[in-house]
Amino acid sequence: MQTDDVCEFLDWCRTQKIEFDGLELIYVQGAGYGLVAKRDFQSEEPVIKLPQKCLITAGQVVEIPKYKELVGNLRYFYFFFEKIKSFSTLPSPFEMLVLFFALEEPQTSTYGPYLKMLPKDFSTPIYEGIEFPESDLPDSVLSFWRQQRQELKVISEKVESLRPKYSISKERLLWAWHIVNTRCIFVENRPNKFIDQTHGDTIAIIPFVDMLNHSTNAQGLALLDKRSSTYMVKAQRFILQDSEVFVCYGPHTNARLYIEYGFKLPDNPYAKVIVNHDLFFELAEECGISLSEKRRDIIRRADLPW
Ligand SMILES: C[S@@+](CC[C@H](N)C(=O)[O-])C[C@H]1O[C@@H](n2cnc3c(N)ncnc32)[C@H](O)[C@@H]1O
């Protein structure tokens, strides 16, 4: 039985010309919503198709008058010779999308039926306020962990500068930041002069497509066909009726999946621990292999063991 929210969302998707015949949106225990094949799909067959204009991108958001005005109000404060100075700054594509989700309301937004389907909370360490001593984190995710916290800090400061005209609570900002962080997809967008292009503009949120969960053994592949301005998810191989359709979010370790998305995979083929030289020497000692300084130096210079 589908809830009213699900029915309203699916009707909304159809009015947006999102094609998803043969798929069912279901609630998957432990993963939120997910998409299941209600018939077999042949390899190369499109599973979802939608017009490019359905993509929520920073460039598209900033063309909405209320967001264009907001961008004009974004000022970034900094201390200089003990005086507070401020300068206008353009939002990055990521920040613009976060502001969109922080300010749209389901009751008034044209995206209302979609917004109602979004998760209410997250199980990431940042959302749950879990702090780790950095020494507990594997090297493979340390810089990612720092970068995520820094991004959140920077956008929080920018949002502060929008007060009192726009008042976004810490909780709402954290929620919106997670919506974008857990759901955005790589797409190359056209530059927009109101969006900071320092690192290009390569993200979009795609309603309905963002209901696909992650697997390292995904059968779905998402791509934009620029010639027909159509975004689609294609079957990379045969998809059996009644199986959940997955895409792969990337070759991520469990530490990365947990920090970014709030889940781990029991049998993750990308599980890895980076062994730096100091740890490698320590492990060698523990195995009874004594390494002279000269040998250690050779190993370091040869960049072994990886
Ligand atoms: C792009 S959304 C996918 C749709 C999402 N399940 C929903 O209900 O909106 C990404 C989020 O789905 C969940 N997710 C995706 N793949 C998962 C998996 N294999 N196991 C558990 N949770 C998963 C995580 O909460 C992740 O942050």
Structural summary, described in words:
The protein has 306 residues and is of the alpha+beta class. It is built from 10 helices and 11 strands. It has helices at 4-15, 58-61, 65-73, 93-103, 112-115, 139-160, 170-183, 254-261, 277-286, 293-302; strands at 23-28, 32-37, 46-51, 75-80, 83-88, 185-186, 203-204, 213-214, 220-225, 230-235, 244-247. Helix 6 packs parallel to helix 8 (254-261). The mean pLDDT is 92. S-adenosylmethionine is lined by residues 30-34, 119, 182-183, 210-211, 213-215, 261-263.
**Bound ligand species:** S-adenosylmethionine
Runs with pLDDT <50, length 5+?
A: none
CATH topology of the largest domain: set domain protein methyltransferase, domain 1
Helix content: 25-40%
How many domains is the backbone divided into?
2
- How many β-strand stretches? 11
Strand order of the largest sheet: 1-2-11-8
Mean pLDDT rating: 92
**Proportion of residues in extended strands:** 15-25%
Number of discrete helical segments: 10
Roughly how many Å apart are the termini? 52 Å
Instruction: Summarize the main sheet.
Output: 4 strands, mixed
Domain SET: 21-250
GO molecular function: protein-lysine N-methyltransferase activity
Protein name: SET domain-containing protein
InterPro entries: SET_dom, SET_dom_sf, SETD3_SETD6_MTase, SETD4_SET
